[in-house]
């Protein structure tokens, strides 16, 4: 192809030879000596249009999550879920340290039950009666001193709190001590037996027992001794615990009150090892403790919490730390639904306190200063927390540059294709 090459194009039904086609005032094609090419004007327009589209779509660039600036700017927007951003500092740590978490001691107290053992409905009683001499109502085995003894069949306290005794009839015993029941029986036998003496014992106490259940221990009804039994003693009698303390939870129910703490809490704070009262329900269960790590971390994912008082420093360590090629050191966040009492101590004017429900809180920590590492060692991570590390702004800029390179490469390829077509 040379200077005499013909470039035919049809416009309005006419054929033009050796000339370029015009659309308005814009020249789209040129026919230089070396063949058919896109004009430089069209190339520039295409490049500008492509870059404009890329700029407009910057928000659609691939990303692990929002930038730090986005998290801060979206706080309080009407079209987003309201949340509080709280910097992790000494004030926040003190508020979290003062937060009163669930406690068995505060809920039930730590007083032992009454030391006197009383008869309850469902108990099985043993009754033995002695007479001063033979020839009386109860002609049992001689005691060797001339007195006669008789062991009555075991008596179960019925639903009304009564038992049956020969020559006495029905007597109400529920709520009395065994000694009081014996004295009552002696009084009713006066004039019928020869100087009667009665001994009453509780052979099986259903009412003076606690019930323990759960998938960690065996299920059992544990009789309580008159001296008083503490929580850990009852759990041991029920079969003990086989799961890690930080994953084991104990729920105690007494009447209409219920409270749950971890086994690790009971072991760390002896006051939580409360006395168990008759009728208490103890449920022991295992619940895995995990947190979620997302963003510019070396190993994001769901991570188990393997100890009590698991800190943010330990959490970041288990995820491999911040990714030094991506992470924004000033953009380490922890997402949590926090108790209102904690938020009230830090942000007493927060509008989110009005509902009385758990409040969405984003705790923020900047690792740009050495002091942040000490704060991270004191901040405790809870189960179901979400740790997120934002990308550095420069990472997003590099992604944009990749789009620009792709755009310029596309224009160059298009130009080369048209050059080849014109040859």
What is the helix tally? 11
The whole-angstrom Rg is 42 Å
Strand content: 25-35%
SSE-based structural type: alpha+beta
**Please, what is the average pLDDT?**
79
* Strand order in the largest sheet: 7-25-24-26-22-23
Please summarize the sheet with the most strands. 6 strands, mixed
Terminal CA distance reads 7 Å
Unreliable stretches: 1-38
Q: How is this structure best described in words?
A:
This protein is elongated. The strands form eight sheets. The protein has a six-stranded mixed sheet with strand order 7-25-24-26-22-23. Strands 8, 9, 10, 11 and 14 form a five-stranded antiparallel sheet that branches. With about 425 residues, the chain is α+β, with helices and mostly antiparallel strands. Helix 1 runs antiparallel to helix 11 (about 395-420) and helix 3 packs antiparallel against helix 9. It contains eleven helices and 26 strands.
Characteristics:
single chain, 423 residues, alpha+beta, 6-stranded mixed sheet, 5-stranded antiparallel sheet, 27% helix, 28% strand, disordered N terminus
What does this entry show, briefly?
The chain is of the alpha+beta class. The protein has helices at about 40-55, 70-75, 90-100, 105-110, 180-190, 230-235, 265-270, 310-320, 340-345, 370-380, 395-420, and strands at about 10, 15, 20-25, 25, 30, 35-40, 85, 125-130, 140, 150, 155, 160-165, 170, 195-205, 210-215, 220-225, 230, 250-255, 255-260, 275, 280-285, 290-295, 300-305, 325-340, 360-365, 385-390.
């Amino acid at each position: 192809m040379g200077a005499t090459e013909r470039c035919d194009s049809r416009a309005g039904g006419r054929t033009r030879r050796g000339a370029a086609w015009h659309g308005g005032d814009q020249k789209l094609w040129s026919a230089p000596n070396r063949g058919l090419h896109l004009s430089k004007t069209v190339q520039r327009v295409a490049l500008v249009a492509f870059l404009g589209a890329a700029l407009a779509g910057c928000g659609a660039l691939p990303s692990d999550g929002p930038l730090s600036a986005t998290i801060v700017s979206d706080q309080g927007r009407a079209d987003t879920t309201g949340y509080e951003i709280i910097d992790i500092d000494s004030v926040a740590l003190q508020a979290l340290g003062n937060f009163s978490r669930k406690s068995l001691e505060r809920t039930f107290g730590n007083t032992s039950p009454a030391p006197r053992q009383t008869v309850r409905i469902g108990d099985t009683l043993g009754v033995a009666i002695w007479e001063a001499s033979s020839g009386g109502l109860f002609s049992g085995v001689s005691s060797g001193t001339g007195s006669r003894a008789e062991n009555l069949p075991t008596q179960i306290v019925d639903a009304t709190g009564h038992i049956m005794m020969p020559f006495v009839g029905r007597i109400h015993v529920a709520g009395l001590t065994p000694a009081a029941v014996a004295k009552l029986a002696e009084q009713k036998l006066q004039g019928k037996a020869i100087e009667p003496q009665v001994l009453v014992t509780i052979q099986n106490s259903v009412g003076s027992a606690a019930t323990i259940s759960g998938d960690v221990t065996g299920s059992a009804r544990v009789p309580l001794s008159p001296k008083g039994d503490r929580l850990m003693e009852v759990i041991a009698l029920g079969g003990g615990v086989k799961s890690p303390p930080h994953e084991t939870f104990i729920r105690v129910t007494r009447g209409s009150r219920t409270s749950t703490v971890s086994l690790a809490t009971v072991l760390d704070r002896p006051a939580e090892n409360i006395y168990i009262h008759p009728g208490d329900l103890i449920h022991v269960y295992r619940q895995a403790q995990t947190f979620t790590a997302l963003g510019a971390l070396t190993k994001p994912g769901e991570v188990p919490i393997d100890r009590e008082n698991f800190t943010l420093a330990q959490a970041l360590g288990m995820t491999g730390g911040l990714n030094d090629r991506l992470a924004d050191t000033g953009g380490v966040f922890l997402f949590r639904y926090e108790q209102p009492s904690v938020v009230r101590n830090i942000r007493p004017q927060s509008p989110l306190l009005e509902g009385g429900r758990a409040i969405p809180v984003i705790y923020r920590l900047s690792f740009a200063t050495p002091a942040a590492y000490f704060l991270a060692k004191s901040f405790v991570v809870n189960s179901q927390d979400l740790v997120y590390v934002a990308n550095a702004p420069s990472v997003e800029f590099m992604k944009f540059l990749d789009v620009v390179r792709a755009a310029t490469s596309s224009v160059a390829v298009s130009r080369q294709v048209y050059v080849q077509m014109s040859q």
